[in-house]
Design brief:
CATH superfamily of the largest domain: ABC transporter type 1, transmembrane domain
Number of helices: 19
CATH topology of the largest domain: ABC transporter transmembrane region fold
Low-confidence stretches: 1-15, 634-638
Strand content: 5-15%
Helix content: 55-70%
Oligomer: single chain
Structural class: alpha/beta
Number of domains: 3
Strand order of the largest sheet: 10-13-14-7-15-16
Mean pLDDT: 81
């Protein structure tokens, strides 16, 4: 292990205030239940400890009975036994109640925590998911949440119960004998030293274990998604070796963590047994000496009535110290898990300073006015803070980019001085090699990322002023990688417009030429799709994705390699549907197949993040530049 690694492991990287934040979240929703739990824990602790004092009185009365006869103490003995039984019964009932109640509180708390995590995750920018391993995100919802379950349901109640019992036992022991209490304190010092040494080492590796679990789950998720590629390239052995490395790291961290955790309890137990013996020996020696005065809060003489209950309290005291030390590992794991959960919840959400919204509108006497009903006409509602007025601009799909620069990282631009425009109803195509910046431009129009310099205007409005949800609602997009969700075919088409009727979804499918193959499925539009539509061909999945965009009926379309996964024959069928879909809309097309972009109004040729050529097909062919080389090369290949 390197010096840096050792330095990092000296102190677990747990943020301060995590426990405080956990309690704040708990009390926010379950204050009444937790008060009941606290009362029950107090009653349970009292039931576990007060009986020792009654044992002192009971033994004293039994001694008097042996000396003076049972009649004088019989009623007192039965009263003490009855009170002890009542105390035990209350303690058992209190334990039962708070255990059941904490189970309900725990599951409710975890449910709400997962909801907050997911709601927060939905607000994160695309950049977060592009830079964070999906398997690691999944680990937040499984392993890290599970550590919180252990903390809330078991550790916190156990710590409170044990802590209260220890406090009561200290008082009870001082009440009976200070000398014997000092022996217990010496044992506690030994326990604290052992816990700090062994428990601290265990905590270090439990922290590493949580991180290793996230890496392992991430690797498995990646292999599952890429299983076809693994098999095609016969990469099974290498994948197995790679997994062995990740799994071995997890195994080592878990082994070291549990090794220290597992030896802690036997050591603590043996210290407790040693204390038990020392208290018995010391108590017996004091009784035999007979001339050593007892120092206690009770003020009574040292007797067998002090030694017997004290021995029981010594055993109970060490057991509770052991239980507290045992919870430390769970607490450390929970703090690590809670820290990761809070990191996800604290991720900076996608910022949106936009104030221009998309509203239903209609024209009255040549003037655009807002309305409640859906008219098929949309308008941008633009409030002006200067004079409090509101203006409406009809949504037409006029997109203009002016001198735009962009880089995923500030020091490395991928787009340089991009200027272009797409008038309503125009079809603009982007052509260029992989990595030229074609998809990046469409991502910026959607505001998945914000530009570094320049302007993007939509119907004359800077898109930074438009609310992102409204901007994206006006844009339909069909990606190269299709994403179908678990549900029926109809549900997946309706994803583009949640309030669409069945007839509207079927109409959209017909427009995309997907209707014929859907009707041939086992249950037609009610056929269930799972695992990203694994029961469909790639072309069929793409057709449903196109139908989804058709159902949304946006004025502006982005087609990012939308037909790249479709064979030439199917492409001709789909192209007819797409032509109908694109009619009257502003369309941005990204395609490697140049036959797809021939009928575009303008073609932009990109290279190295710069537009090097622009014009329609005939113009670019006549110029015999880069586009001519690409097109004639494709033509020769065909």
């Amino acid at each position: 292990m390197s010096k840096n690694e050792k330095t990092q492991m000296k102190r677990p990287p747990v943020k301060k205030g995590i426990m405080k934040r956990l309690f704040k979240l708990l009390f926010a929703d379950y204050k009444k239940q937790l008060i009941v739990v606290a009362v029950c824990i107090v009653l349970s602790a009292l039931g576990s400890t007060v009986s020792s004092l009654f044992m002192n009185t009971l033994i004293t009365d039994i001694g008097l009975g042996l000396e003076n006869g049972w009649d004088s103490v019989k009623s007192k003995i039965f009263t003490i036994i009855g009170v002890m039984c009542a105390i035990y019964a209350v303690g058992i009932a209190a334990s039962f109640i708070y255990t059941r109640l904490m189970a309900k509180v725990t599951q409710g708390f975890l449910n709400k925590t997962r909801q907050k995590m997911f709601e927060g995750m939905e607000k994160l920018p695309i950049k977060y998911f592009d830079t964070t391993h999906h398997g690691d995100i999944m680990s937040y919802y499984t392993n890290d949440i599970d550590t919180l379950r252990e903390l809330v349901s078991r550790c916190i109640p156990q710590l409170l119960n044990s802590g209260l019992i220890l406090a009561l036992l200290v008082f009870n022991m001082l009440y009976l004998s200070v000398w014997l209490t000092l022996i217990i304190f010496l044992g506690v010092i030994a326990m604290v030293i052992v816990t700090k040494k062994i428990g601290g080492n265990s905590a270090k590796y439990f922290m590493k274990q949580q991180k290793s679990i996230g890496k392992t789950e991430g690797f498995i998720e990646e292999m599952m998604n890429g299983q076809k590629v693994v098999k095609v390239f016969c990469h099974e052995k290498q994948s197995g070796k790679d997994f062995d490395e990740v799994n071995e790291a997890l195994c080592n961290d878990a082994t070291k963590a549990n090794r220290f955790a597992n030896i802690l309890m036997p050591i603590m137990g043996n210290i407790g047994n040693t204390l038990y013996v020392l208290v018995a020996i010391t108590g017996g020696a004091i009784l035999l000496a007979g001339n050593i005065p007892n120092v206690s809060l009770q003020g009574a003489a040292f007797s067998i009535a002090v030694v017997v209950p004290f021995i029981n309290m010594a055993r109970q005291f060490t057991q509770n110290v052991s239980q507290v030390s045992q919870q430390l590992n769970s607490i450390v794991m929970a703090m690590a898990g809670a820290g990761r959960v809070f990191n996800l919840m604290d991720e900076k959400p996608e910022t949106d300073e936009g104030y221009v919204t998309l509203v239903n509108a209609k024209e009255i006497d040549g003037k655009i006015v807002e309305c409640e009903e859906r008219t098929g006409t949309w308008a941008w509602k633009h409030p002006h803070s200067a004079d409090g007025s509101v203006t409406y601009t009809k949504l037409e799909g006029d997109v203009r980019i002016e001198h735009m620069d962009f880089g995923y990282v500030p020091e490395k631009l991928v787009l340089h001085d991009i200027t272009l425009y797409a008038e309503p109803g125009q079809k603009v195509a982007f052509v260029g090699a992989t990595g030229a910046g074609k998809t990046t431009i469409t991502n910026l129009i959607n505001r998945f990322y914000d530009i570094d310099d320049g302007k993007i205007r939509y119907d004359g409005i800077n898109i930074n002023k438009i609310k992102k949800a409204d901007l994206r609602r006006s844009l339909g997009i069909v990606l190269q990688d299709t994403n179908l969700f678990t549900g029926t075919v109809m549900d997946n088409i309706r994803y583009g417009k949640l309030d669409a009727t069945d007839d509207e979804c079927i109409k959209a499918a017909k427009l995309a030429n997907a209707h014929d193959f859907i009707t041939r499925l086992p249950n037609g539009y009610d056929t269930m799709l799972t695992s990203n539509g694994a029961n469909l061909s790639q072309g069929q999945r793409q057709l449903i994705s196109i139908a989804r965009a058709a159902a949304a009926d946006p004025p502006c379309l982005i087609l990012d390699e939308a037909t790249s996964s479709i064979d030439t024959r199917t492409e001709a069928i789909v192209q007819r549907g797409m032509d109908a879909l694109m009619k009257g809309r502003t369309v941005f097309v990204i395609a490697h197949r140049l036959s797809t972009v021939r009928n575009s109004d303008v073609i932009m040729v990109l290279e190295g993040g710069v537009i090097i050529e622009r014009g329609d097909h005939e113009k670019l062919i006549a110029e015999k530049g880069k586009y001519y080389q690409l097109y004639t090369g494709a033509f020769e290949l065909e």
